[in-house]
Amino acid sequence: MQESAAAVGPVARLIEEFHKLPGIGPKSAQRLAYHVLRAPAAEARALADAIIEARERVTLCSRCQYLTDTDPCRFCSDPQRDRATVCVVEEPLDVLAIERSGRYRGLYHVLHGVISPMDGIGPEDLKVGELLDRLRSGEVREVIVATNPSLEGEATAMYLARLLRPLGVRVTRLARGLPMGADIEYADDVTIARALEGRQEL
To answer: pLDDT tens across 103-130, in order?
Structure first.
């Protein structure tokens, strides 16, 4: 019995670790675990190595707070991008969604969350101070607030608008091409493109 329990231990742990990932339920966690166990050893090691390498090498860009393995990131170091416009998003995945639209050529700033008093998250827990530091150079003329159209996203957008307007920059918000309660990460390319084109003053 002890031997059997010991054999199950690593499998149960693997399932538990997969279950901790966002959007992965118990059944999906089991499927992922058994897929890894059935995969060739080299494939499983490659997955483990990729996770370790990402954890060790990926950091936040010192300018925009995007995830990167070079500092500054590929967006901030691209001379072809419009440095007078900064699009503020909640999470790194939102950057990828906006890039897929192919309509935006400015820079980004990642907040890494939204204001959510219910969860104990205030402005001081976000990358707002870093955004203010970027605006002090006077190079940025417009800040596009691209937080999700949720209660927390709207509250964060209003907070940023009040904070940024006195600095003399134009503060706009994505248009209502994005449905209320949806995440930018899951929006299609056309919806994001229309939201960018129809952005409005806050």
So the answer is: 999 999 999 999 999 999 999 999 999 9
Amino acid at 29: A
- Per-residue pLDDT of 132-159, as tens digits, reads 999 988 899 999 999 998 889 999 999 9
Domain total of the chain: 2
Whether residues 14 and 89 fall in one domain: no
CA angle, 187 then 92 then 159, to 5°? 85
Instruction: Tell how strand 170-173 and strand 200-201 pair up.
Output: antiparallel
Q: Which pair of tokens denotes residue 128?
A: 């707002």
The answer on pLDDT for 31 being more than 90 is yes
Structural domain harbouring 150: 67-201
Domain membership flag for residue 153: yes
For residue 77, the tally of other CB atoms under 10 A from its CB is 13
CA distances from 155 to 50, 75, 89, 123 (A): 37, 27, 13, 11
